[in-house]
Amino acid sequence: MTDDRSARRAFTLVEILISLTLLASLFVLLGGLLSGMSKVARLAEDDSLRDREINFCFDLMRKELGEMILDRKRLDYDLISGDGFFSYTTTRPELLVRNSIPGGPRRVEWRYDAAAKTVVRRASMLAAGSSREGGTPVVTSFLEGLAAFEVYHFDGVQWLRMAGISEPVPATLAIAVRLVFASSNDSAEQRIYESAFILPNETFYEK
Amino acid sequence: MRPNSRHCRTDRAGVTLVEILISLAILTLVTAAASSGTNYLTRRLIRARNAAVARNLVWKRLAEVKSGAIESGRNTGSFGSDFPGYSFAEEIAPARIRSQLVKGLYSYELTVIWPEAWQQESVVFSTLIADYIYEKEDAAGEVAEKVAEND
Predict the structure, then answer these.
(1) Among the ranges given (A13-17, A68-72, A186-190, B90-94), the one the predictor scored with the smallest mean pLDDT
(2) How far is C-alpha B84 from the geometric centre of its chain's CA atoms?
(3) Neighboring chain A residues of B7 at a CB cutoff of 8 Å
(4) B49 burial via Cβ count (<10 Å: 0-12, 13-18, 19+)
(5) Residue A2 has pLDDT above 60, yes or no
């Protein structure tokens, strides 16, 4: 009996080794789990931020194009597009400036900045009745990490990309914008978001 | 009494195999639950991403439909190689307002479908669309005839 008790009084080397091994494997498991969780959280945050920004830009384009005014004879009232940019004149009050004075058409341009990998929106007041730009333009950049910004117009059958330097968009009822993002972990994979905007019916076609 | 109690304690000192096994089982359960939770979150994340793409494709298809002459019927199609796996099914029907057919007004329902890990996911979009841009004199006559036939 005394022998038995003394044998059980302390842990043996083997027991300690086994427990250490178990602990180590548990730590490895938990570490993998934690890193996986933090990765998910980071991805979710990036995604939701980007998602909101994409939605904001698309909504802004949709609303401003919905109140577009167009005069094919005047350059600053025409819908102009090309490789990585498009611009239009809208009557919608400027959204991105506090206390902006309402009234008067605004010239808005979205242009891809290849160096900064963002899209830059530039909105300036058009002085009423003249082609002179008034006031300081509002310049905002969106969508960090953008790999490409493409503009398409719909000819009734298919979407055609605006690829020139700068030209008037042919008469159309809808234009589409495609945003391409390079995936953060795998550079070969791309994430493409594309939305289309219906122009007001009276824009190009008179009743 | 004293030696007896000491004897008892020494007998129980240490951890038995059963206790170790139970604790290991509990730990395994907890770890499995946590990792399945992580998996679930990842899947939800990918699903949310794909749904965002699909919501924008809804606008693209709507723009295509509104740009052409609108005809009643069902139609299916895909969004090309840039959006692999995404397809749509749509239905256009003459719209009724207070059970009266309205000339040039259609109800439009669009379903965008894409494959997710275990099943297919979809978003459904429905609206009323008006066809009055491309309507010419003869086309207007046809519509009026159709309305008369339906009545």
Answers:
(1) A186-190
(2) 16
(3) 1
(4) middle
(5) no
A156 in reach of chain B (CB within 8 A) = yes
pLDDT band at B149 (very low <50, low <70, confident <90, very high): low
Rounded to 10 degrees, the C-alpha dihedral B106/B140/B61/A176 comes to -130
ipTM above 0.85, yes or no: no
Q: Does A16 touch chain B (CB under 8 A)?
A: no
**Interface residue B59 vs chain A (CB under 8 A):** yes
Q: Is A189 on the interface with B (CB under 8 A)?
A: no
Using the predicted structure, report yes or no on whether residue A102 has a pLDDT greater than 80: no
* Distance, CA of A169 to CA of A202 (rounded, Å): 15
Interface A-B: count of C-beta contacts within 8 A: 87
Burial label for B123, CB within 10 Å (0-12, 13-18, 19+), is: middle
CB contact under 8 A, B59 and A36: no
Residue B37 and residue A39 in contact, taking contact as beta carbons nearer than 8 Å: no
* A203 phi and psi angles, rounded to 5 deg: -60, -55
Worst-scoring range by mean pLDDT, A48-62, A138-152, A172-186?
A172-186
Distance CA A123, CA A138 (A): 5
> Which tokens is A89 given?
């004149």
pLDDT digits (tens, 9 = 90+) for B88-118: 999 999 988 888 888 888 999 999 999 987 8
